[in-house]
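Anyone else keep sequences and structure tokens together like this?

Example one:
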Amino acid sequence: MIRVFGTAFNLSQVVAFVIAVALTLALFAFMKWTHTGRSCGPTAQDHDAATLMGIDTDRVYRLTFAIGIACVGAAGVLVSPLYAVYPTAGLQFVLLAYVVVVLGGLATWWGRCWAA
């Protein structure tokens, strides 16, 4: 237990939170400041226009799928010490994730972070 200003925090929760924030910032930096990350937006907006601009859209699709799978794996690893693990354990988070996407909007990073 970690106590800060009279509030007790579980060490595994603090570690999971810090790692999640670090991974979120790393993903944001990748999407904002790399050529590959910046090519994800145009590919999502218009596949044909992105192809005409010279973006390898198949590569972008493979990369974004791999990033999504990595995020789900990291979330599973970070959440597993905090909750019981069973085959349908993730269903309790599906509605929350849906609400975050709807409230935050599909277009902005900061909107999704604010809604979470």
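And example two:
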Amino acid sequence: MPRSYAVRSWYLTVPLFALLLPLADGQVTLKDGPTPRYQIIALPLRPLAISNSDWVAGATGDQHAATWNSKGGLYRIPLPAEFGFSESSSINSRGEAVGTATTADSSRRVAFVLRQDKVVLLPGEQSRANGISDNGWITGQTIISGSKAATPVLWENGSIVDLKICCAGVARSVNGNGLIVGDNYDKQGRYHAFLWDAGHGARLLAAPGEEFSSAVALNDRGTILLKATPGGLFLYSRGKLEPIDIPKGTPRAMNAEGIVVGSFGPNPEAQRAFVWDRAHGMQDLNALIPANSGWTLEVASSINDRGEIVGWGDHGGEENVGFLLRPTSTVNSSRQPAVRSVP
């Protein structure tokens, strides 16, 4: 099925933050040079994820899973007619997308993958797909045969790999080095963040004094964004916790440089999109665009390693319009972040 083109674009220049370079210990520092500028593009879908190669995944206004890129435009993922609602939650650099489809009466939920314009429904019952890596590993949750609750799983080559984590939960993200993070529920119903890899299996990520914790995001350097209650937000790397301050914020994604995006505000009706980095702390993205742009950026849902940000907001009186913020200056790419197999 050919991909149809449908996109509306507005081009604006907006200031971003100074470039970041990784140090040997995984920290970042400012790089001298001109301040990058943004180009803002209105998208024909509500974006949930952006890859490092211009692919965006999300859902259209009528709640149908879709992808987008600048060359092909919008592509509605062809799903069986019985599924009235769907969304694509993750996409890799090859344009392979995963997501979840639900029947109109909510009685059945299935995880799916889109590869080369062909949709495959993944095995399992009441499943959900949340992440896909560049090597095609897919993470999510499903009810495995003989189980009553949905558990964290990996789909590899179309087969289910049980992560064997008691007693229920979800795998949220997988990176290119085979690390998986997610949340599991213990027998008392409390949820805790976990890290899994093939060599070590699953292990819990504990923050001091926590009662609950959740793995929000994982990047290719193996750094994990961890939310603990009580305790707040932390960056977890190589067994060390670094607290970060994002007041009233809901972080949603993190790139290889440890730059975090999300939303903040007193309530869901008064959200503003933010970007956070170590050098500048939390910044309202609305303060980084011209006042006469016509945009109110409400949620930043994903950021890639090139510093491109997607999300949604209000534009010209229309609500929930998807946007792509693209730096017009290329972030220094001559120095790549070190690859760590296990943090």
